[in-house]
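Protocol check, entry for the methods section draft. Step 1: assemble the input record (protein sequence plus ligand SMILES). Step 2: submit for complex structure prediction. Step 3: store the structure tokens unaltered in the notebook. Ligand used here: zinc ion. Step 1 record:
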Amino acid sequence: MGAESRLVHDWNIHMTYQVLANKYRPTMFKHLIGQKSIVDTITYALTQQQLHHAYIFSGTRGIGKTSTARIFAMALNCQQHDTEPCGKCPSCQQIQMGNDIDVTEIDAASNSKVDEIRDIIAQIHYPPTQGRYKIYLIDEVHMLSTHSFNALLKTIESPPDFVKFLFATTDPQKIPKTIHSRCIEFKLQAFSQTAIQDRLSQILTIEAIEYDGPAIEKIATAGHGSMRDALTLLDQAIALGQGRVSSECVQSLLGLVSETMLDEITTAIESQDYPTLMSICKQIESEHLAVESIIYQLMRHIYDKIRACLLNNELTVLEQLQLYYQICEQAQASLVHQPSPYIALEVLLVRLSYFKVEPESLEDMIRRQSQASSHNSSKPVDNQSKLPEVNNPQKPAPVQLTGIAKQVLQNAHCHQTNDQVVLSIPSSMSALLNDRITKQIKDAYHQKKPDLVVVFKITEDKERASSQATTHQSKQPIKVSPDIKRAVDHLAGQIEQVTSQTSD
Ligand SMILES: [Zn+2]
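Step 3, stored output:
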């Protein structure tokens, strides 16, 4: 028996199988993950009995908008009169099953007709049958027709005290302003990858299903912030792996490349090994793997490397990694415009291996900066274009500036005389300055002229930094931001004074 027919056979045995997204749907406020501020606001309103008559729950798909609205409905009508619904009283149970007489649920995506809304209006003035409130929960409310919204508007302007409207939507912008302005909106946050991973592991443990960590991580990533999407994928992975969630099975489910292949790709990119990259592309195409997911995989891989670099203070390669990430980002965004996803992938891999951030020497950088400033400004800038040559017969190799030091210097304005160079750094970059970076920059200058005094100066912004050297207006102290203060502390007295210009 093949895997597929065995699968069908198993499904027939377990006819009562409930999809995980439904089975583990939250039924109490305390089950909601990552929506603390919303839960706190609702709980406070319930405690104080300061209830508005209409609420909107908005956010991307699969993050619990309808579930939150349903829990709110349960709390409103729970017979235990608590802010947290008991989940046990008849009212709570009927709302959970979707057959409570006082709670009307409408899916606007399939019922956008005006008739439904007319029905609501016709019955709205009759008090609730059992509960305290008559609740109308409208899912995907933005899909209602204009006629339906118009019909609803009159009711929502001044509904009876016992009526509450709870709207859920993925697109609140499409709700007419006249309705929107009469509602309190709660914007639900998408789930973090960690939150999804934790929840999946928790569920698999409860279900006593074997799994491995990387498998869960891949599913959580593919969920893109949606718990429901992640749980649906988990259902599929359980079925495909026949009761075991392994990394290999998730990889084939999502059309991803293996970790080994990912390593091969990155090695080939670094060594500009085009034949290997081409053969990998061919393999990906022949196995019909999902290019979009593979690009996400690459981005994740680069992101992990960026994090590792930051943690280990290896900042020199950071610029290259940022460039890699940016190239992937662009490829992902333009994927739909490409002749084929496999061509897009091939072009992407060639680009990644082709574009390298080259270290730039101090001289080159100064030359480039002075060229740029002579283009930008009509007035010549004094003395800044040339670094004095040093008469040193055993001149060491020039210091190559890379990474943060290069970025800082690129954004600095330099004013140079024979004895000293003043580097005006825009305050937005001050957070990047530390002892190591300033030393790198100083070393670069000292290599050219050992006794040159290098002074760092933080200025309010780049424009002001550049105007300072060419204009002669009065200097006034500015309010020192914590960033500037930190940079000043770092440089321990090497900064003259934090100043800025006032323009008349
Ligand atoms: Zn209850």
